[in-house]
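Moderator note: this is an archived Q&A kept for reference. The question asked for a predicted structure of one protein chain; the sequence and the answer are reproduced below.
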Amino acid sequence: MKEDDNRRPATPEQIENMKVCFKLTLESSYHELYVDMVLLDALSKGLMDDFGIESKVFAGNLVSVHANVCYANLCLCVQLRASLKVEHGVEKQYNIRRSIVTAHETYKYLFGFKGKMTSWRAIEPQLRTKYAKECDEIAIASNDYLQQYAQEADGTLRDVAKHYSDNPAEFLLLN
């Protein structure tokens, strides 16, 4: 750690507060995901016939994006909460790696890595007409994520879910 870095380990009270926050967020995400599934089911069964076909497609894409973000949020809460409860460093390391994989997969689902048409890209133009500022903020955040965490050149995506290594001792390194 650098000398000018004032980061300190979390106190037991802070850790307990994080566990509670993760649990509440997990419960909220689960509830929202359930509602999304009910809406998607209603759309697929034609129970919303007063929507035009374009509106149905847009609504389906919008709810799908929200459902997937809720699911990713739920996964992250479970993984990060579990990492706060572990006894061994290797358990924490595994949970944190799973969190990184979840974040990458969520990014890939929302934005793709090679200009692929994604659900977000399908709904963004229509959302932009009413929520331009928010869409710009999402674009900036997604680009920041791409630049900071998803560069293939540094092996971030390839190496994050290590299953083997030429130096197996690295699996035991806890720092």
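Archived answer notes: The chain has one domain: 13-172.
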